[in-house]
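Example 3.2
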Amino acid sequence: MHDGSDPLNEPSQEGRKRPKGIYMLPNMITLAALFGGFYAIVMAMNGRFDLATVGIFAAMVLDSLDGRVARMTNTQSAFGEQMDSLSDMVSFGAAPGLVAYVWVLKDVGRWGWIAAFVYCACAALRLARFNVNTGVVDKRYFQGLPSPAAAALVAGFIWLATELELDRAGLAWPTFALTLYAGLTMVTNVPFYSFKDLSLKRSVPFAAIVLVALGIAVINIHPPTVLFGLFVVYGLSGYGMYFWRKAKGRPTSVISTSTDEPDERGLHE
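Structure, written as tokens:
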């Protein structure tokens, strides 16, 4: 007896759409970076500012890996990009602002939380602008200070002061100025070199490996001092490049008109 069904009209097993999922490896790295930012906030609330800054720096390292791992394993996705932005907002926006506020900014009253909020708001604006300008910005440069570098300025200063056991009472206003500088520089149009045109797949002279070894040795002399110094130099380099280009009559905008640059979507700052 015919049941009325037509097997020819039924969708084949191959024709059925598989349920969409998410890629585990890059998103696990992103979640680990998010945990670094959350850990920093919790440690600051408990008065462990040394561990709070370590959490932010760990998030920086992990954030630099997730996009590259996704491209190497061909697991890029729109979900991963959105997840990365939200993780960056916590680790490099909310966490540094809150850690700085709990550390010493609260001692200057309303000015302290205003500085922390300005930093946090600028990080959000920076990330939003980055996401919508990915296709038009020259990949060799960031438009404004990247949020991990801004977080490193704030966290590096706190880490250095904690290691040197400096009196926090006299550091309130320097922290206020540094937090505002880092936040506002994120939303400028000043070009900062992105290092994206450096390929790890290319062969390099033997001397380059020696320089890397020397760099690691120098960092180990006193990591808080050296790392903070490096990020201070980088945090000022954009303004140096801006005024140098202006003096030479070269365009200072990082908006690119080239259409043959490699696609870098998913590589967040």
